[in-house]
Design goal:
The complex is a heterodimer of chains A (116) and B (109). Chain A has 116 residues and is mainly beta. Helix content of chain A is 0%, strand content 51%. In chain B, 0% of the residues lie in helices and 57% in strands. In chain B, strands 2, 4, 5, 9, 10 and 11 form a six-stranded mixed β-sheet that branches. A five-stranded antiparallel β-sheet of chain B has the order 1-3-8-7-6, with no helix packed on it. The chains are: A mainly beta (116), B mainly beta (109). Chains A and B meet through strand 9 and strand 10 of A and strand 5 of B.
Chain lengths: 116, 109
């Protein structure tokens, strides 16, 4: 089956620093990748959608200058949280869709970010 | 606006059957997913319905009625490991996934 990996699985950083999270599709090429954020006991919140080779589409209320997304290849997308603050502490999950017309999203294991 | 409703929390007994309902109002419909999410983990795929009716897959079944904007996930022979959140998500006319808030299922011995 389709496998999506994320790295790191958890990270602790100091306020004001930047953190990069990688999302990789291991056995398929992902035309589209999605980045979600999930706070404790809440549902998934879509942050942005990225297509390979083009700029990401951000959801309303998500700061594109703070959450930098790069979908450099068909197997790799990165999310960089710039100048992180404690309120950015959350569970960040990526998912990948194999191609247009395939609606199922394969999820990565998630990255737990704690900003101190 | 687009809206997906699920109960916030349900409790059931090990070995029993539980039905988790999902109602939706979306701009267009291109299918409905059910995902399972254990605490601290990412969601995993359970089922996809695009036509009306019941789809059975082992202990889990999913039902869809497009005319009623309604789906349910049926879990049989409940096991303790089934304690998790169950997320309903609808594919809208723009082929985007619209997520429900999830139903936390608690299984008691």
């Amino acid at each position: 089956g389709a496998v999506v990996s994320q790295h790191p699985s958890w990270v602790i950083c100091k306020s004001g620093t930047s953190v990069k999270i990688e999302c990789r599709s291991l056995d398929f090429q992902a035309t589209t990748m999605f980045w979600y954020r999930q706070f404790p006991k809440q549902s998934l919140m879509l942050m942005a959608t990225s297509n390979e080779g083009s700029k990401a589409t951000y959801e309303q209320g998500v700061e594109k200058d703070k959450f930098l997304i790069n979908h450099a290849s068909l197997t790799l997308s990165t999310l960089t949280v710039t100048s992180a603050h404690p309120e950015d502490s959350s569970f960040y999950i990526c998912s990948a869709r194999e191609r247009e017309g395939i609606y199922e999203q394969y999820f990565g294991p998630g990255t737990r970010l704690t900003v101190t | 606006g687009q809206n997906i409703d699920q109960p916030t929390e349900m409790t059931a007994t090990e070995g029993a059957i539980v039905q988790i309902n999902c109602t939706y109002q979306t701009s267009g419909f291109n299918g409905l997913f059910w995902y399972q999410q254990h605490a601290g983990e990412a969601p995993t795929f359970l089922s996809y319905n695009v036509l009306d009716g019941l789809e059975e897959k082992g202990r889990f079944s999913s039902f869809l009625s497009r005319s009623k904007g309604y789906s349910y996930l049926l879990l049989k022979e409940l096991q303790m490991k089934d304690s998790a959140s169950y997320l309903c998500a609808v594919v809208d006319s723009n082929y985007q996934l619209i997520w429900g808030a999830g139903t936390k299922l608690i299984i008691k011995p």
